[in-house]
Amino acid sequence: MTEILPLAGLKRWRGFRYENTSLDALPATVDWRTKGAVTPVKDQGQCGCCWAFSAVAATEGIVKISTGNLISLSEQELVDCDVHGEDQGCEGGLMDDAFKFIIKNGGLTKESSYPYSAADGKCKSGSSSAATIKSYEDVPTNDESALMKAVASQPVSVAVDGGDMTFQFYSGGVMTGSCGTDLDHGIAAIGYGTTSDGTKYWLLKNSWGTTWGENGFLRMEKDITDKKGMCGLAMEPSYPTA
Fold it and tell me: Which segment of the chain is annotated as a signal peptide (predicted)?
């Protein structure tokens, strides 16, 4: 299932606040879980709303960084209510459009107040906001160094070829080898590092439950020859600002 809607060249340049950050100044390893900026792995089930989980993960991260509070936010509110633009609930969507909705809506409510049902539902308008964002920005396309600058500062939404068998059946370790770049799945980049044998990797949070990958997380090879990145993860990254 394609969960990321085709952009058809519509992606806008919105500035990149980390452009002048020196790569030499970045930490060698980042893991936003250790800084309390990542909620437990969630499970989207059979609903094709990875875009909502990706956008929420990035939003939860910047809210924690800016306010000190880690709040599990409602993906279901996006699925039910963000339906007047490009996003189409369980039929797919875009992280940037989710960020637009969060801004226009004045934020998102808590997951506990608007729990996930893994199906399209009727919007519960008037839900009280638990957290919000000010704007969002796109990371320069096909630039893993730029993505590294962003991830060093906050969790970032990324799109990947989640339909590729290498990704589908990942079970642990650093994912290497061949992977497609037909973007169809949204996840969150929550860190990076290097293994003891020198393999650089991205640390990613998926939304397929804790039985997939490394308890729901994934390490994917970083700084590969293809500028699009492994599974295309450097093609369309973006992040919310607070």
Answer: none
Q: Would you give the distance in Å from CA 27 to the centre of its chain?
A: 21
pLDDT tens string 123-176: 997 779 999 999 999 999 999 999 999 999 999 999 999 999 999 999 999 999
Among 50, 81, 179, 231, the active-site one is: 50
Nearest CA among 65, 85, 63, 81 for reference residue 73:
63
Of 49, 81, 90, 185, which is the active-site residue?
A: 185
Measured CA to CA, the distance from residue 50 to residue 15 in angstroms comes to 25
Active site residue 50: yes
Q: Is the pTM of this model over 0.90?
A: yes
Q: Render pLDDT for 14-68 as a digit per residue (tens, 0 to 9).
A: 678 888 889 999 999 999 999 999 999 999 999 999 999 999 999 999 999 999 9
Structure tokens at 148: 């590294």
The single residue listed with the structure tokens 């973007």 is 183
| Chain centroid offset of residue 221 CA | 17
Domains and CATH numbers, the chain: 28-241 (3.90.70.10)
The catalytic residue among 47, 49, 179, 206 is: 206
Greatest pairwise CA separation for the chain in angstroms: 52
